[in-house]
């Protein structure tokens, strides 16, 4: 990992120096822009594999401490897995298994089928090690990857089974309920975890002991945005990737930030640092998804754009091509439509403030605001109108929601 240094000041310089060194090496060898593009594509592909399949050695937490491999092998059949929001990558399934699922010959109520899916690397965000002993498969360890929370599938084969959609927040996932299955969790903690609900996770709970989950954010549309989290704690995705990999996933390495009075080291081997540049490159390559055809009224959206830029005042913060002023400033808690809340999520962060959320792809990731308190974009507009005393007409509110759906 890194040697307990402030991520915000030193890690960006390390990554920049690494990238600059690679560019100089290419130039010194007479490398062309095509060579540089090829190197970038290779870096993105490496990051894709890390995002989907790398656990950073977090089996130490999920297997050795939480004993989740025992739970999965004994009690988590595919139907149970799908019910808590886990997804299956249809492209990882052999045709024989696809046919078996389709014709009902594959038992989706057996934990052994889940083990078989893990052996195929087909469960999105879970990485299992399966050994064959006496002709029977046995799950000996399990870890999680970035894709667990920040990928879903297109349901092209069946609900919960389809092609991967990396970067899309899995708002069907119930992380609290999954963790609560561990036999190492005490009853009061299980009750708190079970209360979080689908699509929510508290990335501070195991740090400060407070339970106040936020919605799982998208990991797409981050290119050009420095403050990539709700509270803008870091200046690039690598900061949050390190925090999550070490502090939340339990990966082997170190994270330190004096603003949080937090310094965590897991194990003696750094399995995180070298992977951060490629992981960030992949995340930054993921565009926000365009609104589906027919999902909004173009005429109403055009009128809503005028409201957005005019009387609604939305563009004062959701500004520019990125629809956010996050690169220029953060905002006090009072500016958040989800505040006042108790406890304030911002108060538990490194900045004590909130960034303005970018809006590209906002049609995709309901519910809205960091706490998920607005179920629909229409409700978002209503809350803004009320709290900002805008006095919008019903037509203006409707048109503005249509514009948001178009982004």
How much of the sequence lies in strands comes to: 5-15%
**N→C terminal distance:** 38 Å
Which class of secondary structure composition applies to the elements?
alpha+beta
What is the overall number of helices? 16
Taking the sheet with the most strands, its summary is:
2 strands, parallel
User: Which spans of ≥5 residues are poorly predicted at pLDDT below 50?
Assistant: 1-29
- Specify Rg, calculated over alpha carbons: 22 Å
Give the SSE order as H and E letters.
Answer: HHHHHEHHEEHEEEHHEHEHEEHHHH
What's the total count of β strands?
A: 10
Tally of distinct domains: 3
Q: List the quaternary state of the chains.
A: single chain
Query: Which shape, going by the Cα principal axes?
Result: globular
- Strands ordered across the widest β-sheet: 1-5
Helix content: 25-40%
Task: Determine the mean pLDDT.
Answer: 92
Structure summarized in a few sentences:
With 407 residues, the chain is an alpha+beta fold.
């Amino acid at each position: 990992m890194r040697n307990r240094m402030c991520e915000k000041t030193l890690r960006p310089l390390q990554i920049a120096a690494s990238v600059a060194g690679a560019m100089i090496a290419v130039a010194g060898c007479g490398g062309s822009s095509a060579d540089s593009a090829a190197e970038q594509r290779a870096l993105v592909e490496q990051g894709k594999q890390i995002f989907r399949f790398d656990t950073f050695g977090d089996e130490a937490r999920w297997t050795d401490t939480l004993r989740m491999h025992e739970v999965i092998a004994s009690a988590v059949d595919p139907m149970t897995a799908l019910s808590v929001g886990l997804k299956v990558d249809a492209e990882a399934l052999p045709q024989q298994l696809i046919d078996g699922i389709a014709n009902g010959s594959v038992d989706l109520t057996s934990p052994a089928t889940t083990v078989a899916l893990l052996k195929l690397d087909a469960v999105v965000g879970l990485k299992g090690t399966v050994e064959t002993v006496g002709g029977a498969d046995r799950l000996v360890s399990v870890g999680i990857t970035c894709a667990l929370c920040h990928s879903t599938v297109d349901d092209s084969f069946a609900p919960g089974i389809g092609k991967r959609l990396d970067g899309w927040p899995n708002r069907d996932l119930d992380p609290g309920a999954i963790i609560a299955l561990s036999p190492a969790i005490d009853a009061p903690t299980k009750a708190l975890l079970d209360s979080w609900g689908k699509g929510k996770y508290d990335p501070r709970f195991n740090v400060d002991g407070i339970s106040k989950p936020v919605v799982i954010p998208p990991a797409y549309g981050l290119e050009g945005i420095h403050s990539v989290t709700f509270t803008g704690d870091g200046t690039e995705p690598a900061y949050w990737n390190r925090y999550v990999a070490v502090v939340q996933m339990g990966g082997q390495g170190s994270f330190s930030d004096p603003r949080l009075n937090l310094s965590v080291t897991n194990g003696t081997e750094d399995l995180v640092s070298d992977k951060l540049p490629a992981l960030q490159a992949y995340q930054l390559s993921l565009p926000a998804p365009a609104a589906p055809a027919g999902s909004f009224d173009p005429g109403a959206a055009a009128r809503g754009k005028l409201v957005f830029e005019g009387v609604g005042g939305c563009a004062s913060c959701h500004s520019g091509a990125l629809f956010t002023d996050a690169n220029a400033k953060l905002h006090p808690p009072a500016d958040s439509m989800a505040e006042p809340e108790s406890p304030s999520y911002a108060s538990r962060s490194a900045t004590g403030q909130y960034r303005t959320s970018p809006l590209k792809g906002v049609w995709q990731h309901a519910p809205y605001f960091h706490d998920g308190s607005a179920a629909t974009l229409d409700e978002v507009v209503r809350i803004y109108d009320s709290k900002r005393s805008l006095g919008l007409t019903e037509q203006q509110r409707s048109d503005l929601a249509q514009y948001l759906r178009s982004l």
